[in-house]
Design a protein that fits this description.
alpha+beta, Double Stranded RNA Binding Domain, five-stranded mixed β-sheet, C2H2-type domain-containing protein, Znf_C2H2_type, zinc-finger, nucleus
Length: 407
């Protein structure tokens, strides 16, 4: 029999043992909780870690934001011969009107609103005309000074990454590059010229550099070869870029060159330039040769002049089969067909192959649609059409070709 004292001791022991077990359970639960929280933090950190490319884009955007916060610059876009506000995309033809608008619009927007307009990471065009520091009022002096002045004022800027901006001096009287001071006829030519100074994307095939990924992709089409027929006139091209150029010029729905001032369109580049000079009094820029006194209307004509007159190409490409010499590897490649007999130009209709693209284009003319006017049957060649007339429509055939109907 248990005495009252004995029962009291047993209950006390069991109670103490229960407290100990509860404490151990609480410790175990707490330690498991800490372990699970630490593992969650590690998982969370891995989940939100940026890739190298994403990190580069993030830093570039940060650089651009710091520059726009430090300097009174005018961010803009260029589309269809119009200047557009980078924040709201209102368009302008006059540079002064653009600057006045952006000055007010920037107070209601942020840099995020600019990047929201881009489908992918791109540089922000900035007009540096009359720009100054927002903090110390120092006037803009150059691109390098712009970067280091941002750092001097304590803004977050990483010099190992691109600035994220593309500087221009918008002045219709003289479209000049802010880096090398070269002059151009219009803003489009100046914009294309900036690929020389900002080569962030390099073509793996030829090594040319471009400032944005879309421009590199457009250039890469030049290196795509094959058989590319035009769906309008059935001409066949060996390069897709050549086919697209042909379609934009030969089958354009309207004249290609549009006046940025009055929306009139012109068939030729020089027609538009003459219109701008006469109707809108825009100053025409001439491109002077650095080696002689001649000047040219376009930089392309000046480049041709320099290459042909001052630095003519040497015939360094020799044919291994004969004594012919050529200026370029492309000319040598075209010549080699005579020796190798390669037929790389194939007719997509009948499968016949040719050595030259010109021969293929001539051949394609025989595949023009030859249809029978009386029964509607289509033929790929005129000879098949005539054979069909003789066998199925002999009376009509005799009327059309009486000489063939006589025996």
């Amino acid at each position: 029999m248990w005495t009252e004292k004995g029962l009291t001791q047993v209950f006390y022991f069991l109670g103490e043992r229960g407290k100990t077990e509860n404490k151990n359970a609480i410790k175990l639960e707490t330690s498991e909780k800490f372990v699970s929280e630490d593992s969650f933090k590690v998982t969370e950190k891995k989940r939100y870690q940026r890739s190298a490319r994403a990190e580069a884009r993030f830093v570039t955007k940060k650089n651009a934001s710091s520059i726009l916060e430090c300097w009174t610059l005018c961010p803009f876009r260029w589309k269809r011969n119009r200047f557009k506000c980078a924040y709201c995309e209102d368009n302008f033809t006059e540079c002064a009107e653009l600057r006045n608008h952006v000055r007010l619009c920037s107070t209601q927007h942020s840099v995020k609103d600019i990047y929201s307009k881009f489908k992918e990471m791109s540089l922000i065009n900035i007009d540096i005309t009359e720009a100054s520091c927002r903090i110390c009022a120092m006037p803009f002096r150059g691109v390098n000074e712009m970067r280091y002045h941002v750092i001097d004022h304590g803004y977050d800027f990483d010099t190992s990454h691109p600035d994220g901006v593309l500087p221009f001096f918008l002045d219709k009287e003289a479209w000049k590059c802010v880096i090398c001071q070269e002059s151009f006829n219009n803003f489009l030519k100046l914009y294309e010229h900036m690929n020389i100074h900002y080569q962030y994307y390099i073509c793996a095939t030829c090594g040319k550099g471009y400032m944005t990924a879309p421009r590199l992709r457009k250039h890469s089409e030049v290196h795509i070869t094959g058989t590319f027929p035009c769906d309008k006139c059935r001409r066949v091209f060996t390069m897709r870029a050549a086919r697209d150029y042909h379609k934009s010029h030969a089958h354009a729905k309207s004249p290609r060159y549009e006046c940025p001032q009055c929306n009139m369109r012109f068939g030729g580049y020089y027609e538009r330039m003459n219109h701008l000079n006469e109707a809108h009094r825009e100053k025409e820029v001439s491109y002077k040769c650095a080696h002689c006194e001649l000047s040219f209307k376009t930089s392309g004509k000046r480049a041709i002049h320099v290459r042909s007159v001052h630095f003519p190409q040497q015939r360094n490409f020799a044919c291994p089969f004969c004594k012919w010499l050529f200026k370029t590897g492309y000319e040598l490649k075209r010549h080699m067909v005579k020796h190798t007999g390669e037929r790389n130009f194939c007719c997509t209709i009948c499968g016949k192959t040719f050595q030259r693209n010109r021969a293929l284009r001539t051949h394609l003319k025989i595949h023009e649609d030859f249809s029978c006017k009386w029964c509607g049957v289509m033929f790929k060649q005129k000879s098949l059409q005539l054979a069909h007339l003789r066998s199925n429509h002999p009376e009509i055939d005799k009327l059309m070709l009486p000489g063939l109907g006589k025996n």
